[in-house]
Write a structure and sequence with these properties.
single chain; mainly alpha; 0% strand; binds heme C
Protein backbone atom coordinates (compact mmCIF):
# COMPACT_ATOMS: atom_id res chain seq x y z
CA UNK A 1 0.00 0.00 0.00
CA UNK A 2 1.27 3.44 -0.85
CA UNK A 3 0.88 6.14 1.70
CA UNK A 4 -0.47 9.49 0.62
CA UNK A 5 0.15 11.18 3.94
CA UNK A 6 1.82 14.54 3.50
CA UNK A 7 4.35 15.83 6.00
CA UNK A 8 2.73 17.53 8.96
CA UNK A 9 4.47 20.79 8.13
CA UNK A 10 2.63 21.07 4.84
CA UNK A 11 -0.66 20.35 6.57
CA UNK A 12 0.07 23.13 9.06
CA UNK A 13 0.79 25.61 6.27
CA UNK A 14 -2.34 24.58 4.38
CA UNK A 15 -4.43 25.06 7.52
CA UNK A 16 -2.95 28.51 8.11
CA UNK A 17 -3.64 29.44 4.51
CA UNK A 18 -7.23 28.19 4.65
CA UNK A 19 -7.87 30.17 7.84
CA UNK A 20 -6.41 33.35 6.36
CA UNK A 21 -8.40 33.09 3.15
CA UNK A 22 -11.63 32.10 4.91
CA UNK A 23 -11.44 35.03 7.32
CA UNK A 24 -10.80 37.46 4.50
CA UNK A 25 -7.68 38.84 6.12
CA UNK A 26 -5.26 37.69 3.45
CA UNK A 27 -2.84 40.55 3.51
CA UNK A 28 -1.29 42.43 0.64
CA UNK A 29 1.26 45.18 0.44
CA UNK A 30 3.70 46.45 2.98
CA UNK A 31 3.21 45.32 6.56
CA UNK A 32 3.52 48.22 8.96
CA UNK A 33 3.45 48.23 12.73
CA UNK A 34 1.71 51.18 14.43
CA UNK A 35 4.02 54.14 15.16
CA UNK A 36 3.88 53.72 18.94
CA UNK A 37 4.77 50.01 18.67
CA UNK A 38 8.04 50.95 16.94
CA UNK A 39 9.24 52.69 20.08
CA UNK A 40 8.60 49.80 22.48
CA UNK A 41 11.95 49.10 24.10
CA UNK A 42 13.38 45.58 24.28
CA UNK A 43 13.67 45.01 28.06
CA UNK A 44 16.20 42.16 27.67
CA UNK A 45 19.97 42.25 27.42
CA UNK A 46 20.22 41.32 23.76
CA UNK A 47 23.59 39.67 23.67
CA UNK A 48 22.90 37.39 26.64
CA UNK A 49 23.78 33.92 25.30
CA UNK A 50 21.14 32.35 27.57
CA UNK A 51 18.35 34.41 25.97
CA UNK A 52 19.67 33.77 22.48
CA UNK A 53 19.69 30.03 23.22
CA UNK A 54 16.16 30.22 24.62
CA UNK A 55 15.02 32.09 21.51
CA UNK A 56 16.62 29.47 19.30
CA UNK A 57 14.77 26.70 21.11
CA UNK A 58 11.46 28.58 20.83
CA UNK A 59 12.07 29.17 17.12
CA UNK A 60 12.75 25.48 16.60
CA UNK A 61 9.46 24.67 18.33
CA UNK A 62 7.29 27.33 16.67
CA UNK A 63 8.82 29.01 13.65
CA UNK A 64 11.26 26.95 11.59
CA UNK A 65 8.58 25.02 9.63
CA UNK A 66 7.98 28.28 7.79
CA UNK A 67 11.07 30.41 8.45
CA UNK A 68 13.68 27.65 8.08
CA UNK A 69 16.44 26.48 10.42
CA UNK A 70 18.65 29.44 9.63
CA UNK A 71 15.70 31.88 9.56
CA UNK A 72 16.03 32.52 5.84
CA UNK A 73 12.33 32.01 5.12
CA UNK A 74 12.93 28.64 3.50
CA UNK A 75 11.26 26.20 5.90
CA UNK A 76 9.54 23.11 4.46
CA UNK A 77 6.08 24.73 4.70
CA UNK A 78 7.17 27.92 2.91
CA UNK A 79 6.89 26.39 -0.55
CA UNK A 80 3.18 25.70 -0.06
CA UNK A 81 2.39 29.31 0.88
CA UNK A 82 1.48 32.02 -1.63
CA UNK A 83 3.19 35.43 -1.33
CA UNK A 84 3.91 37.14 0.93
CA UNK A 85 6.32 34.34 1.83
CA UNK A 86 7.75 33.83 5.34
CA UNK A 87 10.26 36.59 5.96
CA UNK A 88 14.03 36.07 5.79
CA UNK A 89 15.07 37.08 9.31
CA UNK A 90 18.61 37.76 8.09
CA UNK A 91 17.49 40.25 5.40
CA UNK A 92 18.37 43.94 5.59
CA UNK A 93 14.63 44.69 5.68
CA UNK A 94 14.11 42.86 8.97
CA UNK A 95 17.46 44.11 10.31
CA UNK A 96 16.27 47.68 9.69
CA UNK A 97 13.09 47.28 11.75
CA UNK A 98 13.09 48.16 15.44
CA UNK A 99 12.76 45.48 18.12
CA UNK A 100 9.41 47.03 19.05
CA UNK A 101 8.16 46.68 15.48
CA UNK A 102 9.16 43.01 15.35
CA UNK A 103 7.58 42.42 18.76
CA UNK A 104 4.29 43.88 17.54
CA UNK A 105 4.32 41.86 14.30
CA UNK A 106 5.24 38.61 16.06
CA UNK A 107 2.46 39.26 18.59
CA UNK A 108 -0.23 40.09 16.02
CA UNK A 109 0.67 38.10 12.90
CA UNK A 110 -0.75 38.68 9.43
CA UNK A 111 -2.13 36.29 6.81
CA UNK A 112 -0.26 32.99 7.09
CA UNK A 113 1.99 34.39 9.84
CA UNK A 114 0.24 33.30 13.04
CA UNK A 115 -0.12 35.64 16.05
CA UNK A 116 2.11 34.63 18.99
CA UNK A 117 0.43 36.64 21.78
CA UNK A 118 -0.04 33.42 23.75
CA UNK A 119 3.74 33.19 24.26
CA UNK A 120 4.79 35.20 27.34
CA UNK A 121 6.41 38.60 26.58
CA UNK A 122 9.83 37.41 27.71
CA UNK A 123 9.70 34.52 25.24
CA UNK A 124 8.76 36.85 22.36
CA UNK A 125 11.70 39.11 23.29
CA UNK A 126 14.02 36.08 23.44
CA UNK A 127 12.91 35.20 19.91
CA UNK A 128 13.88 38.71 18.80
CA UNK A 129 17.25 38.41 20.56
CA UNK A 130 17.79 35.17 18.60
CA UNK A 131 16.73 36.81 15.29
CA UNK A 132 19.23 39.64 15.98
CA UNK A 133 21.99 37.09 16.62
CA UNK A 134 21.34 35.54 13.18
CA UNK A 135 21.69 38.97 11.56
CA UNK A 136 25.22 39.31 12.97
CA UNK A 137 26.43 36.13 11.28
C1 LIG B 1 2.71 29.07 9.13
C2 LIG B 1 3.94 29.75 8.74
C3 LIG B 1 4.65 30.64 9.75
C4 LIG B 1 5.04 30.35 11.03
C5 LIG B 1 4.87 29.04 11.79
C6 LIG B 1 5.71 31.54 11.52
N1 LIG B 1 5.72 32.52 10.57
FE1 LIG B 1 6.59 34.35 10.70
N2 LIG B 1 5.93 34.84 8.86
C7 LIG B 1 5.20 34.00 8.03
C8 LIG B 1 4.80 34.74 6.83
C9 LIG B 1 3.98 34.19 5.68
C10 LIG B 1 5.32 36.03 6.97
C11 LIG B 1 5.14 37.21 6.01
C12 LIG B 1 3.85 37.91 6.41
C13 LIG B 1 3.54 39.15 5.59
O1 LIG B 1 4.48 39.83 5.15
O2 LIG B 1 2.36 39.48 5.46
C14 LIG B 1 6.05 36.05 8.23
C15 LIG B 1 6.74 37.15 8.71
C16 LIG B 1 7.46 37.18 9.89
C17 LIG B 1 8.29 38.27 10.32
C18 LIG B 1 8.57 39.53 9.54
C19 LIG B 1 7.66 40.66 9.85
C20 LIG B 1 8.07 41.85 9.01
O3 LIG B 1 8.75 42.70 9.55
O4 LIG B 1 7.73 41.93 7.84
C21 LIG B 1 8.83 37.92 11.53
C22 LIG B 1 9.78 38.75 12.38
C23 LIG B 1 8.32 36.61 11.85
N3 LIG B 1 7.49 36.19 10.83
C24 LIG B 1 8.62 35.92 13.00
C25 LIG B 1 8.09 34.66 13.32
C26 LIG B 1 8.34 34.00 14.57
C27 LIG B 1 9.22 34.55 15.69
C28 LIG B 1 7.68 32.80 14.51
C29 LIG B 1 7.61 31.73 15.56
C30 LIG B 1 7.27 32.15 16.93
C31 LIG B 1 7.02 32.73 13.22
N4 LIG B 1 7.29 33.89 12.54
C32 LIG B 1 6.26 31.66 12.79
C33 LIG B 1 4.85 32.69 8.29
C34 LIG B 1 5.08 32.01 9.47
Amino acid sequence: MRSFRKPLTVAVAAAALATAVASGVWAQGEWKAPADAKNTKNPTKKDDPKLVAEGKKLAEQNCVTCHGNGGKGDGPAAAALPPPKPADWTSSKIAAETDGELFWKISNGRGAMPPWKHLPDNQRWALIDYIRSLQKK
